[in-house]
């Protein structure tokens, strides 16, 4: 059991961590696809306290031009969380903060839709001992339609000491 005696939780990595300088524009970090159910929508409604009938009342939603109750936009946005992808594992200990996001809701999402979230690095801005990573955040549905588009910004440590 030599392996057990030398086990160090700090070295238990899912992937080798990289530095800010090792990241590349164009890298994509995908999250697993998810098919949304009424249970997901109900759970989010409970957590968010958003009780608008567009999210749970089929008759109300259809009366107002929707094909079914609409999944909360913030729930769709939540699927772009960096922790849903490999990104936090890739950056390891250099992460400082998630500093900014933008978001546009482009298409209606309903229970039964399958979502495909992804983050793509679109810029890397070194700032001495820190650097800003900007990603495009996208969510497509099972029909290939872009339902959400936005950006995230993260502040990371760099190996630079200036």
Description:
The chain is of the alpha+beta class and 162 residues long. It has a single domain, classed as Hotdog Thioesterase (Thiol Ester Dehydrase, Chain A). Helices cover 20% and strands 33% of the residues. It is built from five helices and six strands, in the order αββααααββββ. Strands 1, 2, 3, 4, 5 and 6 form a six-stranded antiparallel beta sheet that branches. The longest helix is centred in the first third of the chain and has 11 residues, at 38-48. This is MaoC family dehydratase. InterPro entries: HotDog_dom_sf, MaoC-like_dom, MCH/BMMD.
Shape: elongated
Unreliable residue stretches:
none
CATH architecture: Roll
CATH class: Alpha Beta
CATH third-tier fold name: Thiol Ester Dehydrase, Chain A
How many domains is the backbone divided into? 1
SSE string, helix = H, strand = E?
A: HEEHHHHEEEE
| CA distance, first residue to last residue | 45 Å
Domain MaoC-like: 25-134
Organism: Mucilaginibacter pallidiroseus
Protein name: MaoC family dehydratase
Pfam families: MaoC_dehydratas (PF01575)
């Amino acid at each position: 059991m030599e392996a057990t005696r030398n086990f160090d939780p700090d070295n238990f990595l899912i992937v080798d961590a990289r530095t800010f300088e090792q990241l590349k524009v164009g890298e994509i970090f995908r999250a697993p696809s998810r098919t949304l159910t009424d249970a997901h929508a109900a759970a989010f409604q409970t957590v968010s306290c958003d009780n608008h009938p567009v999210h749970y009342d089929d008759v109300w939603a259809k009366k107002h031009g929707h094909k079914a109750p609409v999944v909360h936009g913030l729930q769709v946005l939540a699927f772009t969380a960096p922790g849903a992808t490999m990104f936090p594992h890739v950056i390891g200990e250099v992460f400082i903060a998630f500093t900014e996001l933008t978001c546009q809701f482009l298409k209606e999402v309903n229970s039964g839709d399958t979502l495909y979230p992804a983050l793509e690095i679109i810029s890397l801005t070194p700032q001495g001992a820190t650097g800003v990573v900007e990603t495009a955040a996208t969510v497509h549905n099972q029909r290939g339609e872009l339902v959400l588009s936005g950006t995230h910004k993260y502040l990371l440590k760099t190996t630079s000491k200036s």
